[in-house]
Amino acid sequence: MVREKVKVSTRTLQWKCVESRIDSKRLYYGRFILSPLMKGQADTIGIAMRRSLLGEIEGTCITRAKSEKVPHEFASIAGIQESVHEILMNLKEIVLRSNLYGTRKAFICVKGPGYVTSRDIILPPSVEIIDNTQHIAILTEPIDLCIGLQIERNRGYGIKTPNNFHDKSYPIDNVVFMPVRNVNHSIHSYGNDNKKQEILFLEIWTNGSLTPKEALHEASRNLIDLFIPFLHAEEEKSHLENIQHKVTLPFFPFYDKLTKLRKKK
Fold this sequence. Notes:
By secondary structure, this protein is of the alpha+beta class. The protein is 21% helix and 35% strand. The chain starts with 13 loop residues before the first strand and ends with a helix.
């Protein structure tokens, strides 16, 4: 086994990209290091960055599909090889990139026979397809296929909403908005016992809608935004009183148990 050698900063805290590659249109990889860190800091930053990369970055997905000819989600349509459910699952896999807010409409209008791919989706100006070869359906007969699509930008996982049979639209199950597919972090320690230092290694895989470096920048900004309120001076409290909403807090578990013990005595 060959050990890899990487040049790192030993005085000033710096980050660096040590590896970047494109495995496919829908799989980007990047590896980054941050050093030097005091003992324990690498784990603190690594855990926070992983959660931010996976949970705080927004992505764009197709969330609903609509067609007048579809009686229900599990129907089969004459002249189309796939069932409606299979088409919905194929639409779920389409990787999009956008800067949109809220929802937008898109369309597929093709005539068979032939293959239907993501290239055939008519998109609004603010949305682009990452891989226009992604399969949607095969038309085996000279029929018209027209599907209306709803596109949404969000984060995390999409929750299935109730079917709207009255307008012939169907939600796509469990869409994954996350552009980051996976994150690993590891720690390398160096130095003597009196002054141990650490190097944080971050590995990031994305779906191609963001590069790993873009994802790292966005996750860092999101974390900073979450911590900024703690930097505000306490005298601003009076300014916020008018917009605050009172919430009744539950007892802490230890306090609750202590109260019950006292009542028993």
